Amino acid sequence: MTDKAPWVTYRPELKVLDCTIRDGGLVNNSHFSDDFVRAVYDTCVQAGLDYMEIGYKNSPRLFPESEYGPWRRCDEEDMRRVVGDHDPVATGLKLTAMADAGKSDWKTQITPAKDSVLDVIRVACYVHQIPEAVDMIQHAHEQGYEATVNLMAISIVQEVEILQALEVFVETPATTIVVVDSFGALYREQVDNLVGTYLAAMEGTGKHVGIHAHNNQQLAFANTIEAIIQGANRADASMAGIGRGAGNCAMELLIGFLRNPKFKLRPILRLLQDEMLKLREEIEWGPSVPYNLTGQLNRHPREAIKVREGSDPDNYVAFYDQQVRDI
Q1: pTM of whole model > 0.85?
Q2: What crossing angle do the helices spanning 188-202 and 220-230 adopt, rounded to 10°?
Q3: Residue pLDDT, tens place only, 70-113
Q4: 72: helix, coil or strand?
Q5: Where in the chain is the domain with CATH 3.20.20.70?
Q6: Radius of gyration (Cα) for the chain, nearest Å?
């Protein structure tokens, strides 16, 4: 740990990304209303946030309109219907969408930035998808976007693979490489080590380290601020912590922690009061015992999600016994 107290001041280079619509869309198949997306957009602007992830730029073949809302595909007309002719200079907010390796028709879906309201493409991949991710980053960059990369499920990736992945990504135009705790399995010491490893790999390149934490063990906020203290300059969070399964770092906690006066908490609290309370009556997210267990066991939360959506969501002992048998 540092012998100073960096948390009592702020780094102007630290930027915050809201992933409410993108990660939250994994809870309801991206079926958010236009009014809700607009409310989140307005809140991000009023709160002084730097980026808003408006959804996925994924394949309409794999995520058809009959099953998934528009924010799984982020067609231009759908985004413009909500944000109009978005201006990042006037609003201080950049719009971004995530394109998954293996799930995006990126060669045709990611069109020139001059014709889009999007400013940033976030490429997401697992370690075995790195070759495609590199091509996606290059394509997005050539189309005029800022490109970043999320290397997912980092808690189950071997150190030698992480080091090689970083060597590869450092050579791409990606401006940020994000530490992604997909399973909510990491503890502070592991976050310290990973952020340090990413920073060392990017030293002298001008690239940034980001953090995207999941809340399976209720450590998303703690791990996010730990990553920031250790030098990560990009942080993801969502309103009320909405996101797949146990959710993400809660934006209201993160903004309450950061000292930069450009960030405003009151608009976020207004959104929680006016929108998120109603949404909690319709869909479930946030920590529960099954998610805690998958986090402790360093497993994908899909089985916990299945249990929570099933007929016996609170049979914790049966879920635990099944997980232990599967070890």
Answers
A1: yes
A2: 40
A3: 999 999 999 999 999 999 999 999 999 999 999 999 999 999 99
A4: helix
A5: 12-280
A6: 19
